[in-house]
Amino acid sequence: MMASFCIIFSVFYSSVVSFQQLSSRSTVSNFLMAGGRSLEEKSMTTRGMFKELRKKLNTAAEIPGFFDVGEGTPEIELYCKSNKDGTQIGDCPFAQFVQLVLMKKGLRYTVKPTLPSSKPSWLLEKYEGKMPALVHKSTTITDSLAIAEYIEKTFPHSSLTRQGAYSYQEVLEKTSGFFPSLSALIKNKDPALDGELIAAVEAQLDVMDEILRSTPGKYLCGIELTLADLYLTPQLFHAMVTMDHFKGVDFYHMEGNPTRPALESFLTRMFDMEEFNNKKAYYNVDQVVYGWKVARGDL
To answer: pTM score, two decimals?
Structure first.
């Protein structure tokens, strides 16, 4: 454990002086005083020094990727739907959900965009080719929610499952009909059925808005971000794009009066989230439209 701490401290020591937000506190010369202690540090007690170190480590932790050090290939691999030529990730909201969880945990991982024709044999034989699929050491697992729960259990830091006004399971149970109803609507080509199908999707949107209005915080379970928020956000992005493109229905009003104020405020917050816009996990509107055209049989 002491060796691990020394390695972490060494990385911190050699890197922290390069960050502008820390340079105002300490200069390079202060860090390189003989005996390894600055003039300021020499006047501190041991407890005071560790308190100051903890403060600096917490500040450094706010910098994305600061502790993402180490060598070699990450131990986690994520196989997911690719775009049409296999060069980038596809428009799967469930794979994006897994990536959001991995990034919120600060974990190093490799994304494997995979065409149907290039799925590995173990994925075909053991899981019928279903993706997303996670590989971690000797463990393989599919189903996005099962993957997220495995990540949460294996890497319990920065918990995404804390109980609030609701548990994440309760929220996901209440909203379990959302994506199936959205899929049914977007795939439907009979205009006579659209009214009923749109009503089914809007009923689920109303449920989400009610949940958000009934909780004390800004997230679906309450004050803290949970798996429920990360699970539904990519699906809501698909809904925003596809309902407008294929059905002419605008449920997310970027301007004007919102129909569901709590839900639309939530969406603004989540769509602005750093991890949601990270190029490793993000796909654009055109990719969403293309993916659903394929699902509808238009291409």
So the answer is: 0.76
